[in-house]
Amino acid sequence: MNGTGAVRNRKIVLWRHGQTAWNLERRFQGSTDIPLTEAGLDQARRAARLLAALRPDAILASDLQRTAATAAELAALTGLDVTHDEGLRETYAGDWQGLTHEEIVARYGDQYAAWKRGEPVRRGGGELETEVAERAAPVVERGAEKLPDDGTLVVVSHGGTIRTTIGRLIGLPSHTWEALGGLSNCSWSVLGETVRGWRLLEHNAGSLPEPVLGDDD
Fold first, then answer.
1. What is the DSSP string of 150-213?
2. What is d(CA 168, CA 87) in angstroms, rounded to the nearest whole number?
3. Is 152 left (phi over 0), alpha (psi -120 to 50) or beta?
4. Which residue blocks in the chain are alpha helix, DSSP H?
5. For 115-170, how does the pLDDT look when each residue is reduced to its tens digit (9 = 90+)?
6. Can 175 be counted among the known catalytic residues?
């Protein structure tokens, strides 16, 4: 909101990076710096053409190469500069990083089960989800504050970081964040500004947002 208390009608598009080889192998990437595959670059180009139609005002991105390359496709179409911030990196997951899903379950079964139940777990000795939200959400909020009224911010980040950031920005308790579900490669979620704060308008979308028609507008 602005100083008068009026809603500024800003939007935040949280866009996950394109496909990587570790995504295909179901390896936990975390903060490991893995590049996009050719298919991932194609995904980024397709999604960028759609997101460019939203006429974004600013682009923020994690500084890891899979997000930087994804963001670069949108920057090329819009002429916007990309601001990179390590606060938007994926969760650091220590010993889990580089392991497949099956290896994590086999070696860290109790830890994995506790995480899935919504308990605060340092996966592989790494970050808590709340710590990820505490570093990422303020980066997004600062970017949104710089928008003009009716402006749109695109944030290019990672699945886990996007989920925790959405949960923090819309005010959900941390143990419920898992209910938001994951994002497919190069899909995005959209937050819109309301008088009561940020509201989730679209989740795991791959097409342009449509207005809500009916009683819930």
1. T-EEEEEE-HHHHHHHHHHHTT--GGGGGGG----TT-EEEEEEETTEEEEEEEEE-S------
2. 15
3. beta
4. 21-24, 38-52, 65-78, 101-107, 109-116, 129-145, 159-169
5. 888 899 999 999 999 999 999 999 999 999 999 999 999 999 999 999 999 999 99
6. no
Spot the catalytic one: 90, 127, 129, 193: 90
Active site residue 127: no
Can you tell me the distance from the alpha carbon of 140 to that of 56, in angstroms, rounded to the nearest whole number? Answer: 14
Query: What's the whole-model pTM score?
Result: 0.93
Are 61 and 156 in contact by the 8 Å Cβ rule? The answer is yes
Within 13 Å, how many C-alpha atoms sit on residue 137's CB side?
A: 17
Pick the catalytic residue from 17, 158, 193, 202: 17
CA angle 31, 34, 38 (to 5 degrees): 145
| pLDDT tens string 169-213 | 999 999 899 899 999 999 999 999 999 999 999 999 998 666 655
